[in-house]
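Q: You know discrete backbone vocabularies at least as well as I do. I have my own habits and do not want them to colour yours. No explanation is needed for now; the record alone will do.
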Amino acid sequence: MHKYIPKNRYRCTMKNLIQRLLPQSWKNVVKGAFGTPIQTIHTDWSILETVPSLDESHIVFDLGARNGWFVQCWLGRCPNSVIHAFEAEPNAAKSLTTTYSDDARVIVCSKGVGAKSETKTFYRLRGSEVSSSFLEHDKSAWDAIKYKTGDIEQQQVELVALDDYCEQHKITKVYLMKIDIQGFELEALHGAQKIIETTNYLLIESAITPLYKDSATFTQVHDLMRSKGFHLMNWRAWHRGNRVLMETDMLFRRNGLEELVPDHTEYDRYYIGG
């Protein structure tokens, strides 16, 4: 019996090995040493390659910007974009502001994003700062995957509703919105009712196995996005520790958008014995 597989499955083999085996700090070393674009080695980038690039100026939102990997990736792909990067963790926000202080294309907002503009307790996980959240962590869920939070520091951090932010900055349309805010996705989406109506694409990380109390789940996010006129365009799931599926990245596309890229369903095929 013969079967076919896409050629690009093999083209990506080395890239996938780099993505899986190298810690992020070493990925940046590889990029510097070999001149490799960071988007080709960052694990979260591949799903975004199906979003059409634009030559003209456009606005992008990065919710949960952290160290700026997404900002760097998107600017490398679309240098005429303007990115509004939101980061609640004070140290990460300060570092991001310093990094892009001389780049007018990047506007850093040192706030979280929620259903309304207010001040809220932020739980900073010292053992896993990238997992810090406005939601209290579920200790039993973290213990089950043998993942340590370290000391938890509580801080009061400002939240902004995206609709308030857009009104303040006179933003009426967003091309792409990336959301990675540790279980707080529904809160952010509820505060973005107006701007979502003129957003083309959203990449949202959401939980399959929640790690936070009152966390949004991928089914809740998916159902909300469908009700807002989007369809699921691409996705992938992640596991941790005991191989239980933990979270998923979901790429949503607004219904009725004009197709800007060729149909990717047709692959070059070749046959292997089996």
User: Anything to note?
Assistant: The first helix runs from residue 8 to 11. The domain at 44-273 is CATH 3.40.50.150 (Rossmann fold). Residues 232 and 253 are 7 Å apart (CA to CA). Residues 1-13, 262-274 have pLDDT under 50 and may be disordered.
